[in-house]
Amino acid sequence: xxxxxxxxGRAGELAVAPGGLRRGRGGxxxxxxxxxxxxxxxxxxxxxxxxxxxxxxxxxxxxxGTAGLTVTxxxxxxxxxxxxxxxxxxxxxxxxxxxxxxxxxxVANLLASYAPNVVVLLVARVLVGLGMGGVWAIAAGLAVRLxxxxxxxAATSLVFSGVAAASVLxxxxxxxxxxxxxxxxxxxxxxxxxxxVAVALAVLLPPLPATGPxxxxxxxxxxxxxxxxxxxxxxxxxxxxHFAAYTYVRPVLEEVxxxxxxxxxxxxxxxxxAGLIGNFAAGAGAARSPRVTLLVICGVLAxxxxxxxxxxxxxxxxxxxxxxxxxxxxxxxVSVSTQTWLMxxxxxxxxxxxxxxxxxxxxxxxxxxxxxxxxADGWGVAGVMGLGGVLAVGALVTVGVGRAPGRG
Length: 408
Prior knowledge:
Layout: E1 3-4, E2 15-16, H1 28-47, H2 53-60, H3 64-67, H4 69-88, H5 94-113, H6 118-139, H7 152-181, H8 183-204, H9 216-221, H10 226-246, H11 249-255, H12 261-288, H13 290-331, H14 334-345, H15 350-379, H16 381-401
Antiparallel strand pairs: 1-2
């Protein structure tokens, strides 16, 4: 008799045949690849304005800080949508839900491409937040249902490689398209990508019925676990610090290092390539020791953010490129290692833990973009780097003194 995957043995779970092969349609590594494409698409959709802040602000007649609200609003909505949608779709097939949410992202990007003013653009970004929060919360914990247990760590790294690939391909490509055809063309291209990924999710994923009801009380009870609280505080500090700085990386590179418009996409590409490497390296490290891996990540990220203005002024674009690559290497491992921390802290409530993870992660993105915007308008873009570095140091302290999860 085939045994079900580690989810309590509920009816409807995908079965594992002897030798680790799945029975039934779809799933396996093609399904994992579709989830990776999904994380790539939602993160690219969320972060697309980062490389387009200057042309968006110029076209709509708004400041860099106001243009940064396009990232802030998306993060805030995603933070609320992640736990809310997880509860609302508790008994729905995950394949159907993911496909519908990806279609919502396509509509949102289409609306953004036609936005005549910042109000309409922000409405479109609200829809991006709804789709993103739901996709990420649900997809993050599905690798365990698609591959044998011994492959879960690798599959989880692959799912989260979509986050790093968004930096490698998505944001630089969006910046490049924006340079060629304007920022609206970048959002139009993202509409087509979302539609294609929606089809891929529908075709490559197997039916994924809910493994059991997800209730608000069960999600809130996760806060009783000290290692869960530590992990969520770590995510809040580290991600807020990163996005306070990264949301305004284009103005920093332009004003401090003297980078031209054509060099920005190359520098962001260097960030993304390093991040993709960091994702897989951190995934392997976090499977062995989440604490050690995150200590390294926090320390390196803090150092890179704090050094960027100094190195940019002293060494220009080449020096800034090196620091940006190191920054990308560190940040590329954040998603997979913090997710691994929380999954190990709550092994019997993966979807609830994922919902909290995505809520805090995206709330931190919004807070980072908001505080970074206020710092940029008040202290100048160099002051934004100091704020981001200090918050990353706070994350380093949290990892060092907080409760780590047991091995799971």
